[in-house]
Amino acid sequence: MAGIEDHHGGTNRAEEFLQIFKKGAEFTQDLLKENERLRFQILKLEEKERQEPGAPSDDATVRKLQEKIAALEEEKAQILDRIREVEEENLDFANRYVDIENENNMLANLYIASYQLHSTLDFNEVLQIILEIVINLIGAEQFGVMLLDEKTNSLRAVGSEGIERDELPVIELGEGVIGQMAKTGENYFVDDLEHYQKDLTNPMVCIPLKIKEHVIGVIVIYSLLEQKSRFAEVDYELFTLLAGHAATAIFSSKLYSESERKLTTIQGFIDLMTK
After folding, report:
1. How much of the chain, in percent, has pLDDT values that exceed 90?
2. Which positions ≥6 away from 177 have C-beta within 8 Å?
3. Phi-psi bin for 176: left (phi > 0), alpha (psi -120 to 50), beta?
4. Using 50, 70 and 90 to split pLDDT, how confident is the model at 1?
5. With bands split at pLDDT 50, 70 and 90, how would you rate the model's confidence at 72?
6. Residue 241, Cβ neighbours under 10 Å: how many?
7. Where does residue 220 rank: exposed (0-12), middle (13-18), buried (19+ CB within 10 A)?
8. pLDDT tens-place string over residues 74-123
9. What is the pLDDT of residue 12?
């Protein structure tokens, strides 16, 4: 439902932007007409002066006309400045419109992806969907999904992309960046993505998978796709939403798998006793 509300909110913002953009265009048209009127008035005065060189019978009349022309030129310059300001505002609105459109698309894709996440209770399918979401929505190239073993208090990789799963180290809870983020439940992003050097114990991004405040694992990212040089504002929102949906889907699938194993065991015991 959150995805639908966000989508509607984005649509309202897009409509509001279009109204603002339309008013800006109308204002620009008015300015252009006013500028044209002033130009015409100047031409008329200049033409009158040429056709009636003797009409201004004294210097005072000539000065008055020159002052009027100077005032019109100044007004014209002000109008041109205002037109440039309006054009810059229109460009800014256009850029914001594109950003809003991108945000709406991303949220719509996340809504679809979250629906897929909750459409299965098979752990491997859930894990595969999470990997696809991180690639397609976040734009990650090398990353891993690590789950917390509460018996040993350690994080171990259960899935990866662009890097061998066995290469990812086992991290103790509270150890290094990954362990600290799993312990505190906070998101981690390096300050300078451009100069980040790959380090398996210090990822560029570490997102805890949380069910409310309970952390069950983390997503660690080591590199982004070539076309993605930085994170947009919407990405941080996506990380938070993804972490919540992925954690719930993983937790549900593991519970289901455990219940299936127990059911199979009980059924085998019953069969053994009744034979």
Report:
1. 35
2. 188, 201, 202, 203, 206
3. left
4. very low
5. confident
6. 20
7. buried
8. 888 888 888 889 889 889 988 888 888 887 887 788 788 778 888 888 99
9. 65
Q: Does domain 112-226+233-259 have CATH number 3.30.450.40?
A: yes
Residue 3 has pLDDT above 70, yes or no: no
Among all chains, which residue has been given the structure tokens 């995805």? 3
Q: Per-domain residue ranges for the chain? A: 112-226+233-259
Three-state SS annotation for the chain: CHHHHHHHHHHHHHHHHHHHHHHHHHHHHHHHHHHHHHHHHHHHHHHHHHHCCCCCCCHHHHHHHHHHHHHHHHHHHHHHHHHHHHHHHHHHHHHHHHHHHHHHHHHHHHHHHHHHHCCCCCHHHHHHHHHHHHHHHHCEEEEEEEEEECCCCEEEEEEEECCCHHHCCCEECCCHHHHHHHHHCCCEECCCCCCCCCCCCCCCEEEEEEECCEEEEEEEEEEECCCCCCCCHHHHHHHHHHHHHHHHHHHHHHHHHHHHHHHHHHHHHHHHHHC
In angstroms, how far is the first alpha carbon of the chain from the final one? 51
What confidence tier does 142 reach under pLDDT thresholds 50, 70, 90?
very high
Query: What is the C-alpha to C-alpha distance for residues 155 and 146, in angstroms, rounded to an integer?
Result: 6
User: According to the model, what pLDDT value does residue 6 have?
Assistant: 47
Averaged pLDDT of the chain? 83
Identify the burial level of 209 via C-beta atoms within 10 angstroms of its C-beta, where 0-12 means exposed, 13-18 middle and 19 or more buried: buried
